Amino acid sequence: MSDTKQQAFAYATYPDLAGKRVVITGGGSGIGGELTTAFAGQGARVVFLDIAEEASRQLEETLSGSAHPPKFLKCDLTDLDELKAVFARIDEELGGVDILLNNAANDDRHEIEDVTPAYWESRINVNLRHMFFCTQAVLPGMKQRGQGAILNFGSISWHIPHTQLHLYMTAKAGIEGMTRALAREVGKYGIRANTVIPGAVRTPRQQALWHNPEEEARILAGQCMPERVEMQDVAALTLFLASNNARHCSGREYFVDAGWYGA
Ligand SMILES: NC(=O)c1ccc[n+]([C@@H]2O[C@H](COP(=O)([O-])OP(=O)(O)OC[C@H]3O[C@@H](n4cnc5c(N)ncnc54)[C@H](O)[C@@H]3O)[C@@H](O)[C@H]2O)c1
């Protein structure tokens, strides 16, 4: 995005998001950090879960002037006992969850021949399993209230040619199936479930670890629009899908990737 477009960017306001209880996994940095910022900006009551303590505390500090300052709870989502305990605490403190953003993930690279059974499990656990169990934790309350929105974060990676991300892509493909299965079961309770699919988003981690001129050229050549997708673009779509403006959007996949289906 050019500097002028970046400066001109402003989120739409969704009045029904004000006061909503929102849980954001991996909400301490990257796209998750922008989600925390954007939902706090709508007046939502955000709790974000993360393992990155320093970044998360910093974000809490930055957003401390919000109408409802977001609250950071440290939680390793691959530890299911910790996950269960943190949602029990959220229920106790907030009285329930209206919107769940299953965003946390880890896109470490690997070669097929190096994958051990333990590594397989660790990748599936960090990229897929917690989404199911966070959902399981919030569903009873959502069903009781007859409303709720769950957004699972997929990835463009398995929709395009990509390498060294075998297990991440496997998990991300699974998320789309899991989300459709969920949407079918919970629609009758007024609960919506969708997958948000980011393209190549400029995050601090992506820029630090994988960015190089060849990769930049590959991305821009593959997209319909030769401009990089920013974290705000993902947050803007997420705000809409979480709001009542999307009241009849469920069981689907929503891409924000500048049309990346080239090589
Ligand atoms: N950045 C991209 O280009 C891109 C592209 C496609 C999809 N996505 C998806 O968007 C989402 C956000 O991506 P991102 O680029 O911001 O990722 P990121 O790696 O920058 O941030 C992920 C966040 O999750 C947290 N996290 C990781 N493991 C955790 C654990 N075990 N317990 C709790 N928290 C944990 C991290 O500390 C971090 O704050 C992910 O689901 C990712 O797969 C990103």
From TrEMBL:
Keywords assigned: Oxidoreductase
Pfam family, one: adh_short_C2
Superkingdom assignment: Bacteria
UniProt KW Transcription keyword: no
Entry's family note: Belongs to the short-chain dehydrogenases/reductases (SDR) family.
Designated name of the protein: SDR family oxidoreductase
Source species of the chain: Massilia norwichensis
Lineage: Bacteria, Pseudomonadati, Pseudomonadota, Betaproteobacteria, Burkholderiales
